[in-house]
Amino acid sequence: MATDHSDGSGIRVPPLENTAFFSIEADDDYVRIEQSLGNQVLYTPEEARDIAQSILDAVDEASHE
Q1: Which residues are paired to 25 by β-bridges?
Q2: Is the pLDDT assigned to residue 48 strictly greater than 60?
């Protein structure tokens, strides 16, 4: 998945004022992640966990720097 950066590369995070609005909620057997930018809105639970883990990993890395 696009959020896998096991090669050590990271996602460049835009400044807060340029980020897209998003909403996260359950939708039957999927997780709906709606964004003001981007096209995909339905993610499998595994994909949503991958996204969440990538965010948590970045927080942990930033906290250790």
Answers
A1: 32
A2: yes
Q: Which stretches does DSSP call E strand in the chain? A: 22-27, 30-35, 42-43
- 9 is a domain residue: no
| Amino acid in position 9 | S
Helix (H, G, I), strand (E, B) or coil at 61: helix
pLDDT band of residue 45 (cuts 50, 70, 90) is very high
Q: Tell me how far apart the alpha carbons of residues 30 and 5 are, in angstroms, rounded to a whole number.
A: 23
Number of folded domains in the chain? 1
**Nearest CA to 38 among 56, 53, 51, 57?**
51
Give SS3 for 65: coil
Handedness of CA 40, 43, 46, 48 (dihedral sign): positive
